[in-house]
Amino acid sequence: MNRALPPGDRRSFESSPYFADAVALRRADVQDRPDVVGQPPAKVVFGKGSGIDSVKNGLKTLGVEFTEDEAMQVVSAVKEFSLQHKRLLTAAEFNSIVSKVLPAKAGAVSGNAI
Predict the structure, then answer these.
(1) Alpha carbon distance 70, 22 (integer Å)
(2) Strand partners, 44
(3) Long-range contacts, stretch 86-89, CB < 8 angstroms, 24+ apart
C-alpha cells in the first residue's frame, strides 16, 4: 500500500487504518518480514487514535468475550486515558481499563497479558 506511516516508532500502530497493515505484516512471507532485516516486528499500541479494530484485537488477545457496545466502551475509556495522560497506554493499563469497564469479565483479564 502507498500510505504514509505515522511519525515516531514506525512499527507501532494505534489507529484502525494502520491496524490492517500491522496484521498483514505479521502474516507476510519471510522476505517481507521486518525482523528478517533487523527491524522490530509490527505491534499494535493503544492511545488516543485507537479504533474499534485495535481494541477488539486487544480484547481477543486477553481472551475476553465482548459485545460491540462493550468494545466501544473500552475504546472510549482508552481514548480518555490517553488524552488525560498524553501518552500511549502500557499493557497493564489496558488490562486495568478492561477490568474497570467490563467488571463482570475481569476474571478473564487477570491471567492474561497483551
Answers:
(1) 24
(2) 13
(3) 87/47, 88/12, 88/14, 88/45, 88/46, 88/47, 89/45, 89/46, 89/47
- As a whole number, the mean pLDDT across the chain is 78
> Which residue, among 82, 66, 67, has the nearest Cα to 15 in the 3D structure?
82
The one-letter amino acid code at 81 reads: F
Residue written as grid cell 469497564: 101
25-40 tens-digit pLDDT:
555 555 566 666 777 7
- Dihedral in degrees, nearest 10, Cα atoms 101, 104, 105, 107: 120
Sign of the alpha-carbon torsion through 93, 98, 103, 108: negative
Please tell me whether the overall predicted TM-score, pTM, comes out greater than 0.90 for this model: no
Fill in the amino acid letter for 17: P
